[in-house]
Amino acid sequence: MTTEPVEAFRARLSEFLTGHGPGPRPRDPDERFAWTRAWQATLFDHGFAGPGWPEAYGGMDLPFAHQVAYQEELARARVPGPVGTGLGIAAPTIIKFGTDEQKRRWLPSMLRGDRVWAQGYSEPGAGSDLPGLRTTARREGPDYVVTGQKVWTSHAARADVFFTLVRTGAVADRQRGISYLIIDAHAPGVEVRPLRDLTGGHVFAEVFFDGVRVPVADRVGEENGGWPLVRTSLGHERAAGAMNQAALYRRVLTELEELLRERGALADPLVADRVAGFEIGVRIMRYNAQRTISDILAHGEPGPASSISRLHITAFEQELHEFAVDALGPAGLLGRNSPGAVQRARWLTGFLRTRASTIGAGTAEIQLNTIAEQVLGLPHEPGMPAAG
Ligand SMILES: Cc1cc2nc3c(=O)[nH]c(=O)nc-3n(C[C@H](O)[C@H](O)[C@H](O)COP(=O)(O)OP(=O)(O)OC[C@H]3O[C@@H](n4cnc5c(N)ncnc54)[C@H](O)[C@@H]3O)c2cc1C
To answer: For residue 267, what pLDDT is reported?
Structure first.
């Protein structure tokens, strides 16, 4: 771990970001994808990727205060986040449960953005109730043969690798019959069908596996022993980017305040009162994120309190965009190509995009259940796997 003083680190990072920034964000989705990926490689090649990762796999292994400074500087510089969901969710799981060979094989290329990872957990009949999943992996010699369907797989159309949950035991075994398998997205028998979301984008997709052969060596953890990995993975999913989100919304809120001031809306005491509420919310987001990072550093896991952070961020971003569209009046409802659209309709797009925030990574109701049972110690919900 570094002994560099945090302010010296912040200055060095800020200088790097000024000198090597990725340039303007392309509008075309394919160009934007290539731009994001190239930026991830630049960070990696200069030793500025993976703030919490071990150095052995290309990470920075930064202490707490440095990780906070890292996320703040990146948000301030307006650089893109990582591609896919591998870095925030799969990587911590593989770092904890993978073999040395698996870590060497998968982690550096994921961190550099050379291979994009996507999460294949949810199925048409298994979202909140993940132990009900039915995609099967049948053992045949050195391989598993995987058949089934996943849904809502973010970034699937861009993915090179899926980290998935598959059924290796009986359906009746629920969470005791699940394994964690890494599947090559380009293998024969894999089909990806993009789904359109409210904003018109195609970020998520359905994924079909039809007799896909996956080497047994690509299973992480024991056969039928995937459930502990799921808990680690879901904790990190809920924690992922909490500090980055806090830094991002600090900047977004300031930008909204400037816009409302310019348009004279901030003079309205009711508008000013709402803005004060969001100022408080963004500070709470930062404290929650700090707690999450310190839990990871102390215990290796974000723990169930990451659900508090996730719930707060998702409710905050929905309310903020709803308020922004309201406060902008009719102009706030114009689409990005309409004359008179405000800031290329970013607030309207944000309003539509964040409708799904309280569903992804576990619905708001599931986060509330986790907080009730695992943080507050209230009685366990019958039918769901026990915590611990
Ligand atoms: C933007 C977005 C991105 C996503 N990305 C991915 C991804 O990359 N990979 C992936 O695997 N999945 C992904 N998902 C899927 C997501 O994890 C599921 O949608 C989510 O877990 C809910 O599952 P479901 O859609 O099957 O709804 P259900 O589980 O069927 O829930 C329906 C309703 O019932 C409520 N409910 C269900 N069970 C309970 C309970 N026990 N107590 C109280 N209320 C309950 C829910 O809160 C919800 O309101 C994504 C979803 C979205 C919206």
So the answer is: 95
Question: How do residues 20-50 score in pLDDT, each as one tens digit?
Answer: 999 999 989 999 999 999 999 999 999 999 9
Environment class of 24 (CB within 10 Å of its CB; exposed 0-12, middle 13-18, buried 19+): exposed
- 121 alpha carbon to ligand 1 midpoint, in Å? 10
Q: Whose CA is nearest to atom 38 of ligand 1?
A: 128
Give the number of the atom of ligand 1 that is nearest the alpha carbon of residue 356.
53
Q: Confirm whether 365 is a catalytic residue.
A: no
pLDDT tens across 322-369, in order? 999 999 999 999 998 999 999 999 999 999 999 999 999 899 999 999
206 close to 197: Cβ distance less than 8 angstroms: no
Contacts 24+ apart (CB under 8 A), 197-200: 197/353, 197/356, 198/352, 198/353, 198/355, 198/356, 199/349, 199/352, 199/353
Kindly report the length of the chain. 388
Q: Which of 72, 73, 123, 237 is catalytic?
A: 237
Give the largest Cα separation in the chain, rounded.
71
Whole-prediction pTM = 0.94
**CA of 122, closest atom in ligand 1:** 11
Give the pLDDT score at 386. Answer: 63
What domains are defined for the chain?
Answer: 6-112 (1.10.540.10), 117-225 (2.40.110.10), 241-375 (1.20.140.10)
* Cβ–Cβ < 8 Å for 162, 117: yes
Bridge partners of residue 183, in order along the sequence: 162
Q: How far apart are CA 329 and CA 114, in angstroms?
A: 44
Lowest mean pLDDT among 24-33, 109-118, 227-236, 312-321: 227-236
State the chain's mean pLDDT as an integer: 94
Atom of ligand 1 nearest to the CA of 363: 47
Distance from the CA of 72 to the center of ligand 1, in angstroms?
A: 30
